[in-house]
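Quick log. Single chain, no ligands specified.
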Amino acid sequence: MRTGEGCTAGGSWCAGRACVHTPCCCDSQTTARGLPCHRGAYAVGYGARPLGALLFGHVGDSRSRRLGLLATIAIMTLTTVLIGCLPTYAMVGMAAPVLLFALRAIQGLAVGGEYGTAQVRRREH
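-> predicted structure:
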């Protein structure tokens, strides 16, 4: 079965993406279980953004904004590559969604820090 085949996710983009990601991070090919798993991964990333702004805001204030910005870009790159290399649920079982959620949380931290650091650095120069 191809990824997303037979999926009835509705019209939204996020629901449609859940059909693609469900076999990777969930044991079910149905949208009923895959959609909460998929949206949960997004929620973890968005929830970590304020913490990233606090963390990298402190790094920018105490060290340098350039160092904070470079660190966030490096972290974003690394986590994005690692998310692309994640094994499927069939390969490692429950470790696949756990790894996905952990990497999305780290990615959310980096995005939160990147946005704030870039804006302050832009205003200062």
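Residues 45-124 form one domain.
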